[in-house]
Amino acid sequence: MRRKWFALHAVMMIAAFGADSASAEAKWPSRPVRLVVPVAAGGPADTVARAVGQKLSERWGQSVIIDNKPGANTAIGASEVARAAPDGYTLLQAVNSTLTVNPFTFTKLSYNVQRDFTPISLVATVPIVLFANEKFPAKTFQEFLSLARAHPGKYTIGGGTVGLQLAVERLSRDAKIQLVYVPYKSGSDVTRALAGGDIDLAMDGVAANLPFVKQGKMRALATSDSKRVTVLPEVPTLGELGLKNSDAPLWHAIVAPAGLPREIQQRIQIDLRAVLEMPDIKKRFLELGLAATSSTPDQLKAMIDAETGKLGPLIKELGLKMD
């Protein structure tokens, strides 16, 4: 009899715990949500997080607190989120380097992408453009290709991240050309170097360089995006130009600690999609040189897996390390 009582009591406790968990999920969010941004305040990623966070706060009736945790190519912020409770109150706005580059460039990374995160949704994609300075002799991509093939190793090209270095490498291999890559600490450094004539070319985002294009101090030759950039409609994609293996996309996405309840995962994804469809958000992103882009969790996971499969072997071959 006593054993039966203990067994019944255990079942009741488990049922009560499950009911409490379900109730907590149903009431989510009942307190502020922290969105960790693993870069310094003030840049495009931070601006994206604050714009999206404000809209989510309005929908949820709770504050979304932007918590900047820069360092180690986003690994510091990502590690903190990986260790957080999977209750929906700590989220990470990752960039693709966080999830597809860092696992190969750090000898000891304190998080495992597959084990430690729950994918939720894409937030933005970043069109990458091949720019030339005003004195560069080629005015079109085809002219650039002819020059680069005729003079291997002559022309310099700058980039501000490992992701952009990989974009240059994929372009070089696909086009069968040899460029001299010049690494910079930031995109603003790349823009200054290209505008000042210190380098011939650059692979970079649109926003910082667009004013120089309009002033005639730079030329946009092609984009590695899958479609033409809205603010540069005359610039062809590399795919249109016959280069099918030069894609090296940059993107932002929201993930959570592993173990996030599916109901909360779906709620965040649905609300993110609604926010990213808002005209003012699309306009703000466009001003930043980004495209507001949502996805399902499964689509985001598929992107991470596919990009990891492409970039991992290339990073190992190039011997790129960040520690």
Automatic annotation (TrEMBL):
Per the record, the coiled-coil ranges are none
The organism is: Cupriavidus necator (Alcaligenes eutrophus)
Kindly indicate where the leader peptide sits in this chain: 1-24
| Keywords of this entry | Signal
Q: Which family does it belong to?
A: Belongs to the UPF0065 (bug) family.
InterPro entries per UniProt: BUG, Bug_dom1
Domain of life according to the entry: Bacteria
Q: Which residues cross the membrane?
A: none
What protein name applies here? Tripartite tricarboxylate transporter substrate binding protein
Q: List, alphabetically, the Gene3D superfamilies matched.
A: Bordetella uptake gene, domain 1 (3.40.190.150), Periplasmic binding protein-like II (3.40.190.10)
